Amino acid sequence: MTTLFHAPLTCSLAARFAAAEGDVPLDISYLNLRTKELEAGGSLFDVNPLGQVAALQLGDGSLLTETSTVLLWIQSQSGNADFRVDPDDPDYFQLLRWIAFCATELHKGLFRVLFYQEATDKVKDRVRRLAPLRFKTLEQHLADRNYLLGERFTAADAYLTWFFVLSGKAQLDHGIYPNLESYRRRALSRPAIRDLIDQDRKKDREMGQGILPA
User: Fold this and answer.
1) GST N-terminal domain: which residues (predicted)?
2) Beta pairing class for 27-32 and 3-6
3) Which of 8, 26, 110, 176 is the most core-located residue (most Cβ within 10 A)?
4) How many separate domains does the chain show?
5) DSSP 3-state assignment of 45?
6) Alpha-carbon dihedral angle through residues 203, 52, 171, 208, given to the nearest 10 degrees
């Protein structure tokens, strides 16, 4: 069985979104990202020396890390042709493009600093001023499509949807971008997405991780 090491509401939730939408079964091993403790015992450092998620242990015991890689593996295993984008699909490199955009421009470019406890308010404010250009890029792209690759929800959307789970906590304002706001509401209202967010919020509280307020 393939095991996802998952800290509720963190970026590994994007992998759960992708697995749910792509009908890819995963065993979930919960952990507290603040303490690095696995619910089943042991430490995240025993799995990934960097102490980070997403981390995916495959059936043969090998490990995949980095959210982008994990998302691409999950989508490659999907039997749902509406979700999976194969390497020979004309949209495949667009899939890579938008996964990379989410990873570098949003996840690392914004969240990595805004959620860094040692970052000063001045530094965080400067980083927030980088957000509008990124949001405008998405706003323009979504002007004539429901999802990043058109009318189908893909692994790239799983990553972007997770961004919106925590964008409010990061105090990022995207309310003035109508296409982006429509996308946000559309993605977050998908039944599988909504259910997983509810599950993770509950688990976050139970574990005392405190990613989002109760």
Assistant:
1) 1-82
2) parallel
3) 8
4) 2
5) helix
6) 30
Same domain, residue pair 36 and 63: yes
Q: Would the pTM count as exceeding 0.90? A: yes
Tokens describing residue 107: 């996840």
pLDDT in tens, 142-165: 999 999 999 999 999 999 999 999
> pLDDT, tens digit, for every residue of 36-94?
999 999 999 999 999 999 999 999 999 999 999 999 999 999 999 999 999 999 999 99
Spatial CA neighbour of 54 closest among 25, 12, 26: 12
On whether the CB atoms of residues 3 and 27 are closer than 8 A, the answer is yes
Residues paired with residue 6 on neighbouring β-strands, in sequence order = 30
* Angstrom distance (rounded) from CA 72 to CA 24: 12
Cα 201 to Cα 9: distance, rounded to the nearest angstrom: 7
The answer to whether residue 145 is domain-embedded is: yes
